[in-house]
Amino acid sequence: MAEEITFKRVVPIIPVKDLEAALARYRTLGFTAHAYDGPQRYGFVDRGDVSIHLTEWDEHDPARTAASVYLYVSDADAVHDEWTAAVEGHFGAPRDTPWGLREFTYVDAEGTLHRVGSPLKS
């Protein structure tokens, strides 16, 4: 009998026009961030168990090639307060959803939509 295959984690790869600016923005959002030490313009950002990769792409156009990520956090309201105090961008107010999450949205300068949610408190 074959051993069951397990998936360990997934890491989105987000296109950016300016890798250094994107790394700085994620640092401001509380992530650790560093560029790949090689010829490719590639970066890594991490916060807790969340990892995102960034790839600098000259043809990235936020109107056509932007990405979306959903970040599950322990307290969406606290993250919203932290992020709105730290960076510019388009933020949606936290709200309760019919699917049992408290969530908000943040669209960064590269056009990436970050949906951030936490379980509703009972």
TrEMBL record:
Residues 6-119 form the VOC domain. It comes from the Bacteria. Transmembrane segments: none annotated. InterPro entries: Bleomycin-R (IPR000335), Glyas_Bleomycin-R_OHBP_Dase (IPR029068), VOC_core (IPR037523). Keywords: Antibiotic resistance. The keyword Membrane does not apply. The keyword Transport does not apply. SUPFAM superfamilies: Glyoxalase/Bleomycin resistance protein/Dihydroxybiphenyl dioxygenase. Belongs to the bleomycin resistance protein family. This is Bleomycin resistance protein. It comes from Paractinoplanes hotanensis.
